[in-house]
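Dear support,

I submitted the protein below through the web form. The confirmation email said the job was done, but the results page showed an empty box. After a refresh the structure appeared. I'm attaching both so you can tell me whether what I see now is the final result or a partial one.
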Amino acid sequence: MGDLEVDIDGLEGLVTSLAGVRDGLDQTRSVVNGSASAMGSEDVAGALDDFENHWDDGRGRIKENIEAIVGAVEESAQAYRQTDTDLREALQEEETSTTAVQAR
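What the results page shows now:
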């Protein structure tokens, strides 16, 4: 049977990265507001502002999807950690049991 290896720390790192992406999506408004004067043209600044206003719907859907993925990855990491703990404890109990029988 093949071995199954899961990088649990990697899964947890993915959660952190996804949270950073989600948080970064919220920062686009402040970037637009902070750079409007640097656009050099009111038309360009207006177009950027219009884009940002329409981007709200898409951003909301993306954030919902990220939240769903974060939840699934967090549950997976917890399940793998619990499985590791359960297997370790079962092996330790088996080892203790075997040692006790051999000592008789």
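Response: this is the final, complete result; the empty box was a page-load delay. The CA atoms of residues 23 and 63 lie 9 Å apart.
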